[in-house]
Amino acid sequence: MKILHISTGIIRNAQGEIFITQRAADAHMANKWEFPGGKIEDGESAEQAMVRELQEEVGIVARNAVLFDKLEYQFPDRHITLWFWLVEEWLGDPWGKEGQPGRWVAQGELLAAAFPPANEPVIAKLIAQA
Hints:
The protein has 130 residues and is α+β, with helices and mostly antiparallel strands.
């Protein structure tokens, strides 16, 4: 069984919109929307991984991120621990640096069904706060 530790950024602008990206067609949970992020490398903290991943995936430098939620999710073939960081201050403009589609969505219009199931509690929490 795979055990993964993933750190993601919930990039929220002053208008209350959140930047999301689409997973690759050949990835686990293909074509689902997601909060940008990725695996935590050996020797990295969850926050350091989120900052690195946002630079690599969407070309921004996160500043003053706050831990929004941490949860665990069990798939048939893998166990995932997810850190979700709320990023409301950054340098640069987010874009799909790896060729992935990206877009801004109003926080209250996030659709849990469009994301991997592990994201559902976080999306419910975001919608409740919208």
